[in-house]
Specification:
Blueprint: H1 2-20, E1 30-45, E2 51-57, E3 60-71, E4 74-84, E5 94-105, E6 109-117, H2 119-123, E7 145-156, E8 159-166, E9 178-187, E10 190-199, E11 204-214, E12 219-229, E13 234-245, E14 248-257, E15 262-271, E16 276-286, E17 294-304
Antiparallel strand pairs: 1-2, 1-3, 1-17, 3-4, 4-5, 5-6, 6-7, 7-8, 8-9, 9-10, 10-11, 11-12, 12-13, 13-14, 14-15, 15-16, 16-17
């Protein structure tokens, strides 16, 4: 493993040197600030039959993208994205979501390091992650975002490879703790992905595949299959469909964990303005055995900038 890690680090150094060796005077840094304020009112049941109504923040965020040209076809980039707790419930209104820096070459691809998103979760489970509050309950994956990561991405024609490794010296493993890789094909109305996520610390593998089809200008269908390969394997299926009519989008979804919970989700969103939208969602969890089924409702407002 030490040899593998040394080779990986040497590859990173060579990659970075090849990008900067022919650099000229850097261009001005281009920055873009983005974010969303999202607030909801929910009425959720628990498995004891109790329901709770609450007005609260719903994953509000703010971020900045920065890009600087180094030479023709070569750029440096960085992203900082913070979750915003508009309720300030823990006296800490900001929480790190993404924070990374990298180099991009038009032909060689991009290399980045920091706190980054999981390629497996983004590219495979992302085909069915379409709701504001609920949905994606059946997906089997390791994490959405994590620290101590190095990522590489490159595209050849319609195919994109995304890879990531996590190197965390505190876990007790020597070298790479997590490694992920996905392939995504995008052509016309079809986007399809497949990948693997290997948790070396806990010796668990995740496999998955999914697709999104824009069946028409108003109808979109998404599907994902994920498998958690451990002592007892767990597979899951998710399917969603959406219909757009004017400024309204109607969405329905179904997810099922093997021999376990099934999720029925429905929602509608409406664009009040280009940036401001409102939504309402419902989810029914069909639990197995003696565990009570639950019903959850939410409505909210979201302003994106």
């Amino acid at each position: 493993m030490r040899k593998t890690l040394i080779i990986s680090l040497m590859s990173i150094i060579v990659f970075a040197f090849s990008l900067t060796a022919c650099s000229t005077d850097a261009e001005a840094v281009e920055t873009k600030i983005y974010g969303s304020i999202n607030y909801k009112v929910s009425n959720d049941e628990d498995t004891n039959g109790n329901s709770y109504m609450k007005a609260e923040n719903n994953s509000s965020k703010i971020g900045i993208d920065a890009v600087e040209g180094i030479s023709e076809g070569i750029t440096g980039f960085a992203k900082l994205e913070l979750g915003v707790d508009t309720d300030d419930s823990d006296n800490n209104p900001f929480d790190s979501r993404l924070a990374y820096v990298g180099l991009n070459h038009d032909s060689l691809g991009s290399l980045s390091a920091g706190r980054q998103a999981s390629p497996f979760t983004t590219n495979v489970s992302g085909h069915t992650d379409v709701f504001e509050v609920y949905g994606s309950g059946a997906d089997q994956n390791l994490f959405a975002r994590d620290t101590n990561t190095i990522a590489y991405s490159n595209s050849v024609g319609a195919i994109t490879f995304d890879g990531l490794v996590k190197i965390d010296g505190s876990t007790g493993k020597d070298g790479i703790d997590v490694q992920e890789g996905t392939l995504t094909f995008s052509e016309g109305v079809v986007t399809a992905s497949a990948g693997i996520s290997n948790d070396r610390v806990n010796e668990i593998d995740y496999y998955g595949a999914g697709f999104t089809i824009d069946a028409s200008d108003s109808v979109t269908v998404g599907y994902s299959y994920t498998l958690k390969d451990t002592t007892t394997d767990v597979s899951a299926n998710e399917v969603v469909g959406s219909y757009t009519s004017g400024k309204a989008v109607f969405t329905g979804g179904y997810g099922k964990v093997e021999d376990s919970t099934a999720y029925y989700t429905a929602g509608v969103s409406y664009g009040i303005t280009e940036s401001l939208s409102t939504y309402a969602e419902y989810q029914h969890e069909d639990n197995t055995g003696s565990t009570l089924d639950t019903d959850s409702y939410s409505t909210g407002l979201k302003f994106t900038f």
